[in-house]
Write the structure tokens for this entry.
Amino acid sequence: GINAEYGAIPPFQHYFKQINLSTMKVQALVLLTIISFAQGGILEAATFEDIQKQELRVRTDNDCMDIPHPNMASDCLTTLYKFYHELVDDEWQECKSYTFNTAPYTNHYCQFLYTDRCIKDGLTVANANKGCCRSIHCHSYMKGITYE
């Protein structure tokens, strides 16, 4: 018959319609990572933090890293602000290690930071690091997101 809560859809099918495929990919990766560590006999060598970092790399590689900062959703901006240094280069500092003045922030200025201070060819690692962090900070600020 018809279920009052789910209409004509049986409860188990309703549940499967709401599964987020992106979440499933991440969960599958974590499971495969754990299985591969266990099969190799090195599960003890992998910390939970290592698995989280790998999960973060896959999630951001698929969802955030290829999106220009001006087009990023709030969750990607926040993820990159917190973890950019782990995703890009071992020499990068955390974005929170910089202090940025928000007074000049406008959409145009944020775009300038992205194109000329973050992705421009020839930037040193230190300059790209600070420029990309400032770009993320600026775009976040313009969306009402602030970091402490």
Summary: Residues 21-39 form the longest helix (19 residues).
